[in-house]
Write a structure and sequence with these properties.
six-stranded parallel sheet; EC 1.1.1.1; single chain; seven-stranded mixed sheet; alpha/beta; globular; 10 helices
């Protein structure tokens, strides 16, 4: 089968022929319908997150497809079932897995990091327990839901205890994750004002289409001053930063109001200097991915049509061009690798 692999850090992915795995026991071989291209994979490709076990290695942690073959101990699935793949795998359950917080298990065992990922025609899943039925959802449409939607869903949920009717939620960075963040802020906090901030006018237009009440261009206006103006000087009660640079984290912290919560998701590697903001009892936390239960909730919202992924389909020969576009902010929504050409038209919903 074909697979897009990291063969050297800092180099483009190579399309290589690798053996098709054979499932045993609880393992399931999934025919990949879609595999989302994530910004964190750029960090892995450049060796900035040196977690890959050895090279060459197949990336891809946002995966969905169809059950192709099953080991002898698999229960509840049949060949041809459409499934999403939860990627927080572990060799043996730890206290986080037992508590339903699988996203906090050893990152070195996750799909696309510790196990070969979905940038391939087939993916070997170590247990059927990591599969979630898709129902009527297309695997191409569902693939980015496993991270690009799941991560902001968990992050926005963390804001809920700090919010009240009429309060303000700010989403900083409205790329692939932030666009879902705007949608979840609108869905989970319907009585709140939602503000989106970015430096790309096109992405701000999309954010407004997805439900943002106000948008702020970060290079044309002072985001902190504008948020304060839109909140009568109070500031936001909830802020999610999907960038994570020094500039955006400082903005997020400075626009937070009394007893607000600021959630950092982005991996830009910035630094934040604390100030007298501590007098406001504002909370600062981080958020990573989401649990398998939360993924089931995201899939249900998608089935109901409450959230809408924007998808750019990518073939194997286009994957490096797509990553180049991702690195330069030219992807509107989520790029999804579609390894089987005959399945390319199976997706539904908004596309590029």
């Amino acid at each position: 089968m074909r697979a897009a692999q990291v063969v050297a850090y800092g180099k483009p992915l190579e399309i290589r022929e690798v053996p098709v795995p054979e499932p045993h026991g609880e393992e399931v071989l999934v025919r990949i319908g879609g595999a989302g291209l994530c910004h964190s994979d750029l960090h892995l490709m450049h060796g900035e997150i040196p977690l890959l076990p050895s090279l060459p290695f197949t990336l891809g942690h946002e995966n969905a497809g169809w059950v192709e073959e099953m080991g002898e101990n698999v229960q509840g699935f049949s060949k041809g079932d459409a499934v999403a793949v939860y990627g927080g795998w572990s060799e043996k359950p730890d206290r986080f897995a037992w508590a339903g917080q699988e996203q906090l298990t050893d990152i070195r065992k996750w799909v696309g990091i510790g196990f070969p990922g979905g940038y391939a025609e087939y993916l070997l899943v170590p247990s059927y327990r990591y599969l979630l039925p898709l129902g009527d959802l297309s695997p191409i449409e569902a693939a980015p839901l496993t991270d690009a939607a799941l991560t902001p869903y968990r992050a926005v949920k963390k804001l809920l205890p700090s919010l009240y009717p009429g309060s303000t939620v700010v989403i900083i960075g409205v790329g692939g994750l932030g666009q879902f963040g705007v949608q979840f802020a609108r869905v989970l906090t319907p009585s709140c004002q939602v503000i989106a901030i970015d430096v790309d006018s096109k992405k701000l237009e999309i954010a407004r289409e997805l439900g943002a009440d106000h948008v702020i261009h970060g290079r044309e206006e002072d985001p902190v001053a504008k948020v304060k103006s839109l909140t009568g000087g109070e500031g936001a009660q909830g802020v999610v930063d999907f960038v994570g640079s020094s500039a955006t984290m400082t903005q997020a912290w400075n626009m937070a109001g009394r007893q607000a919560k600021v959630v950092i998701v982005g991996l830009a590697g910035g630094k934040l200097e604390f100030t007298t903001k501590v007098l406001n009892e504002a909370e600062l936390t981080t958020s990573v991915w989401g649990s398998q239960v939360e993924l089931s909730e995201v899939l249900e919202l998608a089935r109901r049509g409450v959230i809408r992924p924007r998808i750019r389909r990518v073939r194997f020969e286009e994957i490096n061009e797509a990553f180049e576009d991702l690195a330069h902010g030219r992807i509107e929504g989520r790029a999804v690798l579609v390894p089987h050409d005959t399945l390319e038209n199976a997706a539904t919903g908004p596309t590029q």
